[in-house]
Structures are given as C-alpha cells and as structure tokens.
Amino acid sequence: MTRLFRITEQGLVASRRKPLDLESRIEDWVAQDLSLVGVDGFVIGRQVVTDHGTRIDLLAMDEDGNLIIIELKRDRSPRDIVGQVLDYASWVRHLTTKDVHDLVRTATGRSLPDLYRDRYSKAVPETLNASHQMIVVASEVDEATKRIIEYLSEEHDVGINASFFNIFGDQGHEWLTTDSLLDQDEVKDRAVKKARAPWSGLYYVTGGAEEDRPWEELRTHGFFTASGGRRYSNALDRLEIGAPIFYYQKHKGYLGYGRVTTPKMLASDFVLSSGDRLPEKVRGWYVTDHADDPEMASYVVGVDWLKTFGRDEPQTFSGIFANQNVVCKIYDQETADFLRRQFDFAADEATA
Q1: Residue 224 sits in a domain of what CATH number?
Q2: CB of 188 within 8 A of CB of 159?
Q3: pLDDT classification of 350: cutoffs 50, 70, 90
Q4: Number of H helices and number of E strands within the chain?
Q5: 133, 163, 192 — which closes off a domain?
Q6: pLDDT tens string 250-259
Q7: Which residues contact 161 (CB under 8 A, 6 or more apart)?
Q8: Domain limit, last residue, from 167, 192, 217
C-alpha cells in the first residue's frame, strides 16, 4: 500500500489517504495526459456508447493506430470492473478502420487524420485497431483480481493492466500518486505480437535531421539525446544498458550502430571520457537549451558506437523502416536483417 509522508523538523507526518471519489476529476486528468496510465497516445472519445448499450469512460489510440480502453472502477467491485472492460473489448475488437474513423468523427466532431497529425505530425496509419489494450483505474484491487489480470496478460497475451491512483490530503493540500500493476510497454508488446512479426531485439533511434542533431557530435562524444519535453525525453527510459541501437538520420539513412552504456540522465550531468561535462564540449541548442527546466531539458544516454558511417554513405534501401519516434523497437524483419549485415551486428551479437 502506498503511503505519503510530509517531512517536518519534528519528523514524518503521515498524510491522510482520501477515498477515490473524484472519478470525474481523474477522468479529466487522464484524458489530458495519458502518460498517467503509461500510455503514449491521445483520446478519441469519452463516454463512448457501445452496441451493447454500455459506455466506455475513455477510448484512446496510440501511434500505431491501436485502441486503448480506459475505465475507472467507480463503485464497482474489482472483479466486476475486469469483467466490464473485457466486455468492452469484445466490442472494440470488431471495429474496422472505417468504424474507427466514423467513431472519432461522432465523438469529437473532428476527423481522425487531423487529430492524429496534431499529436504525431504525420499521416494516420492506413490500418487501424490491429490490436487493443485495456486499463482499469482504481485505488486498489484485491489479490485475486491482480492474479487474474497477470494471468490474462502474461499467459494469454491479453492487453490488460491496472493503474492505481491514490489521493492524499494534508493541511488543505492534495497529492496524487500513480502506479501500475504491470509494465505498460510489456503489456502492449504482448498484446500486439500476434498482429505483427516478433521483435528483432534491435532498437531504432533518431535525432531528426542533421540540423537537429549533428551526427559527428553524437558519434565523436559517444551519446544520444532527446529534448523538448517529457514526451520525447521519456523515450530514453526504454533503453537499458547494453541495448543495441541503430541511429537513423532523417533524409539520409542509418549511420551508426552501438550499445547503450549509461542510464538516462540530464545532459548537464553527462561526463565524457575526457572528464568534461557534455555542455562544455557540445554547445548546440539541443544540449544546452532549457538546462534549468527538468521538463524541457536535454537528456542523454551514453553510447559505445561500434560501427558508424559518414553522412555521405548512409545505409538504406527503398522501404527501409523509419519513423518519427525518438526510440522504438524494430519489428520489420527485412530492415533488421539489412542492419545486421551492414553493421556487422551478428559478430558482435555472438560475443555480447
């Protein structure tokens, strides 16, 4: 059970846990920021009416065009709410691409291509709803319900998870804590693996075009960076030490292969092999801007670039995988095989 304490000179003072009776506020918070439940996406409908005559609290979409059902527990028992979201999923799974477009127009009064472009600055995927996920929002669920959710997700690849919200109060102030039963990225991976090829084990990373992130600076100083807000910098959390990454430069192709050597940290804290801090050697805006603002600042991971190419010899072919994600897994098998060959990855993999 989560507990929250206020630190005073006299010692720790426990804050009072308040009942989860603010569902409408929580629904608003989640609708405005889906990262509260571990989702990178946007809401396409609220109180969406199903063909069964029931209403989904929030229906969202991720960058791949997959749908996410988000339901607050309200006054239902834990098992009742799990049964409810499964019933919603039985309806959602039959929605065609056209159905999703029509639903968004009805729910928001706007076209899905417009909403999607506002969120991701690119065209909406041609095929939608290849898979779906479910998230139950509650203050807590009983152990039996946790076991059910874990069983469905881990044994049967059902995209279901629970997100825990707790509100605490003390001296007229309120605090919100959030946590998840399962790692949401892993839940998503299990849910979508039937709809696409298995993960190659490789990561794609991009810093945009040369004017956004000069390639020579990245490979010379051994790092990769993201900035401009948590939406971008949080993507670095997906990269564990040792993760094999392939760097793609927009308008060019793949330029480097390396392995991550450090966890994510502020660019201002990153120390180069020379002993200098990164901003002392690299003064580009993408490293130094908003250094005093943890939300907007540049974050980096160290990278041991094992094989690289200059910008005049990018590794690419017609149809190679690339997108605007800062970090993502490479599922396209043709791209994975190409990168392994061009960057001699197989030899490195054998000794890793």
Answers
A1: 3.10.590
A2: yes
A3: very low
A4: 12, 16
A5: 192
A6: 999 999 999 9
A7: 38, 133, 134, 135, 136, 149, 153, 180, 181, 182, 184, 187
A8: 192
